[in-house]
Design brief:
mainly alpha; about 180 residues; 3-stranded antiparallel β-sheet; 3 strands; DNA-binding; Arc Repressor Mutant, subunit A; homodimer
Chain lengths: ~180, ~180
DNA sequence: CCCCCGTAGTTGAAGTCTCAACATTTCTTG
DNA sequence: CAAGAAATGTTGAGACTTCAACTACGGGGG
C-alpha cells in the first residue's frame, strides 16, 4: 500500500547534508496507515456533515459553524476579521459566505461605528431560531459519527492531538521553527 | 464557548421517551473543546496541504492523492469506481477530477475490455515523474504539520481513532445500528 | 497636514464540488 | 430471451472556494 514512498521502504539513510530536506524521511508503513486513515476519516466525516446539514439546515457545515460561533458571542456579533480568525478561514471566503447567509436572512451586516472600514456580522433572530431547530439533529450526527464510537481515553487523546495540530498551523506567532527560512 | 448547546449546560434530563432523539444529548464542555479542536485542525491542515501542493505540484491535495493511489496499483491503473471508493469520493467528483488531470497529462483514460461501460484511470509516466518530484516536499509538509508534533503514543492513538471513524462512515455494510430507520 | 504604508473587507474570474439527470451496458428474473 | 432493475461513468448547472486585485480607511513620521 505505497503512499508517500516512491523510492524504497528501507530505513532512513544517514543524513549527510546541511539542514532541511535533502533526502526526505519517508513515512513508515505505520505512519502511512495512520495518514491514510486520517485522510479517509476527515473526508468522510466532512462529507457526512455537509450532507446532514444541507438536508436539515440548507447549508454546508462551514456555514452552520459560522452561525454557531456567532451565537456564542456577547451580542451575537463579531467583526469579519475576528470571525474569520475564529473559524480558521480567509476573509475572502468569509465575505462570500456571509453574503450568502445574509441572502438567507440568517445573518445581517452592520457598520462599525469606531472604524469606518469595519463590518460586524450579526446573527439574526431567524438565524438563532434555525440553529435551535437544527442543533439536535446535528449534535446527534456528530455523536454517532465520532464520540459514540470512541472510548473516553480516545476522546481525550483526540482532543489533545487536534489542539497540537491546530496550534502548529496557526498563521500567527511563528516563533518556534526557523523563522528566517520563511 | 457555546457550541452545540443552545439550551443549557445542565446534565442530561431523564429520558422519558421512546428511542431515538427526543431530548438530544448535548456535547459536554470537554466534548465541545475536542470537537472545536477537530474542526480547526482539519480545516487548517487541509488548507495547508492544498496550498503546499498547489504551489509545488499545481493541484489540490485530493488530486495529488488520486495520483498517489494510482501509483500504488499493479499497472498504475484502476477502474473509476474502484478509485472513487479507495479515495472516499463520489464518482461524479472523480469524473471531473480525472478530466482535469487528463488535461494536464498526469492521467489517461482507457476502455475496459471486459465491460464496455468501464473506464480505467491510468497514471501516465509524466504523472509518475511529477509525483516523484513533488513527494519530498509533500511528505515534509505532512511530517511538520502532523507526525513531528505527536508522540509515538499519540500517533498510534490517532491511527486507531481515525480507522474507527472512517469505518463507521463507510457507505457499505450498514449492519450495526438501526438499519430500519434509514 | 500629508504621504506612505498597513489593515478591513469586497469583488470577479477561474477552478472545484454537489446534485440530479442522463446514456450505456450488464445483471436478474420470470 | 425479454423486460425491468442495477451498475458504470459522464454531464451541466448552480453553489462554493481560491487567488489576486481593488477600494476605502486608519496610523505614524516628516
Amino acid at each position: 500500500m505505497g503512499g508517500m514512498n516512491p523510492a524504497s521502504d528501507m530505513a532512513n539513510d544517514m543524513v549527510t547534508d546541511t539542514a532541511a530536506a535533502q533526502e526526505p524521511r519517508w513515512l513508515t508503513d505505520e505512519e502511512q496507515r495512520t495518514w491514510l486513515a486520517y485522510v479517509h476519516a476527515t473526508t468522510l466525516l466532512e462529507d457526512h456533515l455537509d450532507r446532514q446539514l444541507q438536508r436539515d439546515a440548507g447549508m454546508p457545515h462551514l456555514y452552520y459553524h459560522l452561525l454557531v460561533v456567532l451565537s456564542a458571542q456577547p451580542q451575537r456579533r463579531l467583526r469579519m476579521t475576528e470571525l474569520a480568525m475564529k473559524t480558521k478561514i480567509t476573509r475572502s471566503r468569509l465575505s462570500h459566505a456571509v453574503a450568502r447567509l445574509e441572502k438567507n436572512g440568517w445573518v445581517r451586516r452592520e457598520d462599525c461605528p469606531s472604524d469606518k472600514r469595519g463590518q460586524f456580522a450579526v446573527l439574526t433572530d431567524g438565524g438563532q431560531e434555525m440553529l435551535d431547530k437544527s442543533a439536535p439533529e446535528h449534535v446527534a450526527a456528530v455523536r454517532q459519527a465520532l464520540f459514540d464510537r470512541l472510548s473516553p481515553g480516545q476522546q481525550k487523546a483526540l482532543g489533545e492531538i487536534m489542539e497540537i495540530v491546530a496550534e502548529g498551523l496557526q498563521p500567527k506567532e511563528v516563533g518556534a521553527d526557523l523563522p528566517w527560512l520563511r
